[in-house]
């Protein structure tokens, strides 16, 4: 029944999906937090930049961004991100696109977390003379992140599913392999079931685990 | 209150803080200028800034008539169709999830969790192949069918959660009152809860429309559906390799369209929250993203 699987690197494709997810998650967590810090900072120019970035990037389809990294950045402008093999270039471009897109959502999640920190905490921090970066780093963000694990988990799951868009620029991840297999094998239902199962294995445990973590670390108020 | 919130994070700037802020502004400006400079230089290097590459969008109506408007029409049709079909399906699934019958609740829950856990692209690829194998829809219209089917399967599950949240957001007094005047369960749902829930969740529905519009671009890249993103290639081939200009125009159209929808959603939300006629229950525009992590509700009604 599963003979047709021979000759296809199923695990390899899902491994690429996982790699895309992990690298983009790390990148967008950093860039998204920076964006959130900008959006609440005392410097108007930074606030403006953060707001503009989030509002523009959130409203452009991820597919447009990813295809742009390949057609626009690489093929037109020659940006290759320090790689010389096609597969590596496309992989890095996909991570860049996914990070740029997901950061906007991370930023919004973190910002909503900042809004859950009670006023008194911030006032007390200011009263003992902490500066804005200190208020953010020592008082606000640690509490904000604890309340934001749940929303961030949703962003991470959305990111896992979004990595399939990288197939549009030929990154050899799960969706691209699925399209190839559908074209070559007459086992549509079985192939689709296998890939659906693969993604459920990636997203459901993440959701359950992080949902549990979110309840554990949430600040009880 | 919410608007002033960020200023709580720092004091009203005194002379030193103002100097420091100015310094930060300057530093940030320099960094920003460096990035802009790099972009402009590399664009100019590859001749992407020539007026000839941008002019067609402003002077030549044919670009719009031949490429952009038909593509935009496809995008909008696919998104609208997906919404119109997914909404009743989602409402049905959402109501089933609140059913008193355990098996119905469980079945609907499984369907919802399943389709929410897998990427839309997988659903679209499956629908495309299924249509080509089991039906005789012509290859020209098949991508549209596949895109809409994929979007419906995914969004019906998302909307099921929205409907459920909408119904749960209503005050319990509504159900009690309906019971008190002798309504049966079906009647309570059809005449009391659902109409109010639909009003309460309008903002969330409109903002889900943004997600749907964005996802139609997947069909352009992977299935050959001729929507906005897919119009970039033929356009840049016909107007002198103006890839950057084409992408800019397409991105601007998407941003304007989605920004209009988002603004409409928050206007609706404000109106509903202020409204005196309703119970004031509302499922906000931002709620969709936070409506339960996949798997969270497997064990609960």
Automatic annotation (TrEMBL), chain A:
Protein topology in the membrane: Multi-pass membrane protein
Domain ABC transmembrane type-1: 14-210
GO biological process per UniProt: amino acid transport
Annotated Gene Ontology cellular component terms: ATP-binding cassette (ABC) transporter complex
Cell location: Cell membrane
InterPro entries (alphabetical): AA_ABC_transptr_permease_3TM (IPR010065), ArtM/GltK/GlnP/TcyL/YhdX-like (IPR043429), MetI-like (IPR000515), MetI-like_sf (IPR035906)
GO molecular function annotation: transmembrane transporter activity
Domain of life the protein comes from: Bacteria
Coiled coil: none
TM spans (from-to): 12-38, 59-83, 89-107, 188-214
Pfam families according to UniProt: BPD_transp_1
Keywords, in A-Z order: Amino-acid transport, Cell membrane, Membrane, Transmembrane, Transmembrane helix, Transport
Record Gene3D superfamilies: MetI-like
Family note: Belongs to the binding-protein-dependent transport system permease family. HisMQ subfamily.
Stated name of the protein: Glutamate ABC transporter permease
Naturally occurring in which organism (per UniProt): Streptomyces viridochromogenes
Automatic annotation (TrEMBL), chain B:
CDD domains membership: TM_PBP2 (cd06261)
Keywords: Cell membrane, Membrane, Transmembrane, Transmembrane helix, Transport
One Gene Ontology term from the biological process aspect of the record: amino acid transport
Alphabetical list of PROSITE patterns matching this protein: ABC_TM1
Spans through the membrane: 21-40, 76-96, 108-131, 143-167, 188-213, 239-268
Its membrane topology: Multi-pass membrane protein
Highest taxon of the lineage: Bacteria
InterPro entries cross-referenced by the UniProt entry: AA_ABC_transptr_permease_3TM, ArtM/GltK/GlnP/TcyL/YhdX-like, MetI-like, MetI-like_sf
Keyword Transmembrane helix applies: yes
Location, primary (coarse class): membrane
Protein localization: Cell membrane
UniProt GO cellular component terms: ATP-binding cassette (ABC) transporter complex
Residues covered by the ABC transmembrane type-1 domain: 72-265
GO MF terms, alphabetically ordered: transmembrane transporter activity
UniProt record similarity statement: Belongs to the binding-protein-dependent transport system permease family.
Protein name stated in the entry: Amino acid ABC transporter permease
Organism: Streptomyces viridochromogenes
């Amino acid at each position: 029944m599963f003979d047709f699987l021979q000759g296809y690197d199923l695990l390899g494709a899902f491994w690429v999906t996982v790699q895309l997810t992990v690298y983009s998650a790390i990148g967008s967590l950093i860039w998204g937090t920076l964006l959130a810090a900008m959006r609440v900072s005392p410097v108007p120019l930074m606030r403006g930049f953060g707001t503009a970035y989030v509002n523009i990037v959130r409203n452009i389809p991820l597919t447009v961004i990813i295809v742009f990294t390949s057609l626009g950045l690489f093929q037109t402008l020659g940006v290759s991100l320090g790689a010389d093999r096609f597969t590596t270039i496309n992989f890095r471009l996909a991570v860049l696109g996914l990070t740029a897109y997901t950061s906007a959502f991370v930023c919004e999640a973190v910002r909503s977390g900042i809004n859950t920190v009670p006023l008194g905490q911030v006032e007390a921090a200011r009263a003992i003379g902490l500066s804005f970066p200190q208020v953010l780093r020592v008082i606000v963000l640690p509490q904000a992140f604890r309340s934001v694990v749940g929303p961030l988990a949703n962003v991470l799951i959305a990111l896992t599913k979004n990595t399939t868009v990288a197939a549009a620029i030929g990154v050899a991840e799960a969706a691209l392999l699925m399209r190839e297999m559908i074209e070559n094998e007459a086992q549509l239902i079985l192939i689709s079931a296998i890939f659906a199962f693969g993604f459920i294995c990636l997203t459901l445990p993440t959701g359950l685990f992080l949902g549990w973590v979110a309840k554990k670390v949430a600040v009880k108020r | 209150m919410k608007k002033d919130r960020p200023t709580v994070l720092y004091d009203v700037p005194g002379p030193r803080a103002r100097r420091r802020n100015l310094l930060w502004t300057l530093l940030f400006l320099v960094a920003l200028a460096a990035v802009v400079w790099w972009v402009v230089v590399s664009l100019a290097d590859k001749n992407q800034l020539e007026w000839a590459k941008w002019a067609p969008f402003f002077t030549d109506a044919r670009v719009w008539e031949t490429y952009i408007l038909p593509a935009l029409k496809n995008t909008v049709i696919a998104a609208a169709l997906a919404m119109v079909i997914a909404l009743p399906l989602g409402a049905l699934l959402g109501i089933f999830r609140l059913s008193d019958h355990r098996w119905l609740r469980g079945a609907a829950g499984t369907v919802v969790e399943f389709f929410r856990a897998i990427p839309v692209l997988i659903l679209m690829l499956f629908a495309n192949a299924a249509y080509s194998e089991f039906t005789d829809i012509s290859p020209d219209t098949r991508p549209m069918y596949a895109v809409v089917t994929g979007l419906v399967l995914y969004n019906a599950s998302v909307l099921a959660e929205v409907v459920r949240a909408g119904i749960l957001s209503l005050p319990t007094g509504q159900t009690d009152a309906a019971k008190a005047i002798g309504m049966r369960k079906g009647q309570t749902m059809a005449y009391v809860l659902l109409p109010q829930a639909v009003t309460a969740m309008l903002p969330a529905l409109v903002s889900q429309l943004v997600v749907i519009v964005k996802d139609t671009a997947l069909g352009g890249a992977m299935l050959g559906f001729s929507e906005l993103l897919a119009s970039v290639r033929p356009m840049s081939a016909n107007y002198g390799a103006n890839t950057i200009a084409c992408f800019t125009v397409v991105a601007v159209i998407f941003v304007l369209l989605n920004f209009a929808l988002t603004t409409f959603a928050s206007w609706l939300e404000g109106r509903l929250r202020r409204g005196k006629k309703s119970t004031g229950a509302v499922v906000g525009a931002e709620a969709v993203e936070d409506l339960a992590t996949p798997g969270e509700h497997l064990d609960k009604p």
